Automatic annotation (TrEMBL):
SUPFAM superfamilies: YVTN repeat-like/Quinoprotein amine dehydrogenase
Molecular function (Gene Ontology), one example: glutaminyl-peptide cyclotransferase activity
A Pfam family of this chain: Glu_cyclase_2
Species of origin: Aquimarina atlantica
InterPro entries (UniProt xref): QCT (IPR007788), Quino_amine_DH_bsu (IPR011044), WD40/YVTN_repeat-like_dom_sf (IPR015943)
Name of the molecule in the record: Glutamine cyclotransferase
Keyword field: Transferase
Length: 351
């Protein structure tokens, strides 16, 4: 017996629609409800969640997972836990509902926030040094008393070795015109440099500035800033994430998410490691965020407003971007995109 192709297609469509309809109906059976419908929880608070069973279906059990990690398996279909040492930032609370031989998986987006508001610091200018106003600064870092800089824009990107006191460019390596260079960091006698949207970074010999290799971004889509603590590398990508990179493979193996007591923050650009903290420029902001590298808590902000007015005003002048810490002098240096000055500053911590 011959069956027309049209008939087969119709039957398959009906079956597909039927299955899809059943799945859609099952999705409406259950949902996760948190106490007071909260989606943001501060450290020290307790999450209280339960399953809403709209159809009064007999449930056998429920397993709760936080970011795919099992946190509870209960018969009373509820979950309660105090937030003490969980990673701050965005999370997914998942419930696997077992009933009548079926398993339904439902999710709810939640966020864990810091329970302390960021401190506000000011600054004092210690010294001013000349800086190339044609440099679209994307990365800045000291090695000893020598300053290294990465500049951006396609066709203008470069890696530079500088005498910071005179502003003299000692060595300059131009980057291929198809790349928009971003942040840098120095570790194990190597310079690591990001590109913005090419999903590729470069590795250079510290002494010669000769390119020795490259690496691909394994998870993030963009490269913004880099810093390191001597053991691992931290990378920002413009989102709320700061990635933790394996120093050998440069693979993005983990991340933190930057949070305050109000919410999850993003757009962190140039990074610097300073006395156990991550200092970060926030794009389009006249300040530096001080971030706990373990939890992601934004602990303080250095207000650098007014600094941009102290450089020559011209049509190419752009935002604050560039943080370098001189471990020998314990001083912080900052500049911006197309700024003609590099500032040595002292951070004033208010009680």
């Amino acid at each position: 017996m011959k069956i027309s192709n049209s008939f087969v297609i119709i039957i398959l469509s009906i079956l597909s629609f039927s299955c899809g309809s059943n799945q859609d109906k099952r999705k409406k059976y259950f949902s996760i409800k948190t106490e007071d419908n909260k989606t943001k929880f501060m450290l020290g608070e307790t999450i209280k969640a339960n399953i809403i069973n709209a159809q009064n279906i007999k449930i056998d059990s429920v397993t709760f997972l936080l970011d795919n990690k099992k946190v509870a398996s209960k018969k009373d279909f509820s979950y309660e836990e105090k937030i003490d040492d969980e990673k701050l930032g965005n999370h997914i609370l998942t419930a696997q509902v077992f009933y009548d031989g079926n398993i339904d998986t439902i999710t709810k987006k939640i966020a864990f926030l810091n329970n302390i508001s960021p401190k506000l610091y000011s600054y004092k200018i210690i010294a001013e040094y000349p800086h190339d106003k044609e440099a679209f600064t994307q990365g800045l870092e000291f090695f000893g008393d020598t300053l290294y800089e990465s500049t951006g824009k396609k066709g203008m990107s470069s890696l530079r070795k500088l005498d910071y006191k005179t502003g003299k460019i000692l060595v300059k390596k131009d980057i291929a015109k198809e790349y928009f260079a971003e942040g840098i960091t120095i570790m194990n006698d190597k310079i690591f440099q990001l590109t913005w949207t090419s999903k590729e970074g470069f590795i250079y010999d510290l002494n010669t500035l000769e390119k020795t290799g490259s690496f691909a971004y394994s998870q993030s889509k963009e490269g913004w800033g880099l810093c390191n603590n001597g053991n691992q590398i931290y990378k920002s990508d413009g989102t709320e994430k700061i990635w933790i990179l394996d120093p050998n493979t440069l693979a993005e193996k983990d991340y933190i998410e930057v949070t305050t007591n109000k919410g999850v923050k993003s757009r962190f650009n140039e990074l610097e490691w300073v006395d156990g903290k991550i200092y970060a420029n926030t794009w389009q902001k006249d300040g530096i965020a001080i971030i706990n590298p373990n939890s992601g808590a934004l602990e303080a902000v250095i207000n650098l407003s007014g600094l941009r007015k102290k450089v020559t005003q011209h049509e190419k002048l752009d935002v604050l971007n560039g943080i370098a810490y001189n471990a020998n002098t314990k001083r912080l240096f900052v500049t911006g995109k197309n700024w003609d000055k590099l500032f040595e500053i002292e951070v004033i911590k208010k009680p």
